[in-house]
Structures are given as structure tokens and as C-alpha cells.
What we know:
The complex is a heterodimer of chains A (about 110) and B (about 110).
Chain A: E1 4-6, E2 11-14, E3 19-25, E4 32-38, E5 45-50, E6 54-58, E7 61-66, E8 71-76, E9 85-92, E10 101-103, E11 107-112
Chain B: E1 5-7, E2 10-13, E3 19-24, E4 31-37, E5 44-50, E6 53-56, E7 65-68, E8 75-79, E9 88-95, E10 104-105, E11 109-113
Parallel strand pairs in B: 2-11
Antiparallel strand pairs in B: 1-3, 3-8, 4-5, 4-9, 5-6, 7-8, 9-10, 9-11
Amino acid sequence: QKEVEQNSGPLSVPEGAIASLNCTYSDRGSQSFFWYRQYSGKSPELIMFIYSNGDKEDGRFTAQLNKASQYVSLLIRDSQPSDSATYLCAVEGGGTSYGKLTFGQGTILTVHP
Amino acid sequence: GAGVSQSPRYKVAKRGQDVALRCDPISGHVSLFWYQQALGQGPEFLTYFQNEAQLDKSGLPSDRFFAERPEGSVSTLKIQRTQQEDSAVYLCASSLLAGDNEQFFGPGTRLTVL
Lengths: 113, 114
């Protein structure tokens, strides 16, 4: 079992819809959770991070964390074609204090006009 | 200010050759990470530096991989006797402090081993 698992997709949604991206992780000691966006051929860029159970909203993005279920998700409201990218879930843990990240394989999102 | 830069952006090596990949982190950033990203996969941790100290090299796949950051700024990832399975994008990331929320990634070096 991988430490961080994502559905590789592709996930296809129409413009204006809500895109829902999911991630599960195996290390119960994990404390911090991140969503990165990666356009094809580009480097990952941070969208959001979340530490506490519940929801965290930033503009069109909402991250949701459920530590009991070891589950983290990202909702993208009013999806735009420019949101089409690979979304990487990352978990900080492994007993380190310096931010070592374990990534999932990424979910490819396509927003079609 | 400038972001994280990496060079070369693309490298083609014949199997058995040694390669050296360079990372220039954001000025003043204490933490520096190297990740390896295979096609269609997420980045995988290779090694971590805090200033010049290599605190974690648990992700280096073999003793052919070596990384250094002698003056606490620029870092070099060296791969000796390259193999085809080393073909990947090598990403460098830096953060201001140890344990900072955000790691800033460089554009990566795409290594192809023939």
C-alpha cells in the first residue's frame, strides 16, 4: 500500500462545475497536508495546506481534512479551463521536523468548456 | 526576486556516464530538498539539507547518487554510472526555514539516459 494514494483520473468536469479531488494517507502521525498543482512540463506550485480537521477555504478552493478517516480532499468551485492540471496531494510526516513531503501520484483534472 | 533555478534543464546521458545537476535555491533559504519525479508519478523525496548539513539522505536510491551543498546555498546532485531507470525529472525545492509550510520548486532537470 502506498503511503499517499490518489485516483490518477483523469477527472473531467465541465466549466463552472465543482471538481472534487481525493487523497488518503497511511501514516496516522502525519500532521500537515498540502495540495500542489502541476501544469504539464512545469514544477509543482502550492495551492493550499491544512493542519486541522475540517474545512479550509481560499477563494475557489476548499481543502477538507478528516484525520480519523485519514482522508484529505480538495474542492474547486466554478472550475475553469485554466484549472486543467495534475493535482498532487502531499503529506508531511515521517517523524521529521523539517518538512519532508510524501506525494501521491497525482490526479489529472481536465475542465472542458 | 528570483525563484529556484536549476541547470541544465535537459540532460541526455549515455548509460554509464556521470552527471551533475545544479540547484540554486532562493537566496537565504535554509532548507533544500531534492525530489525525483518519474513520468506520471508524484515527486519522491531524495535528500534534504539544512544549510550545508545533509540531514536526511534516506531517499537516495543507491550509492551512485550523491548530493552536496558545501556552502549552504547552491547544491549539486551527482549520479554516477547512470542507468536507464535514472531517467526522470529531478526537482529541487527550497524553503525559508526548516519545517516551513511552503516549499518553492525549481523548474527541474529532465534526465534521459540512453
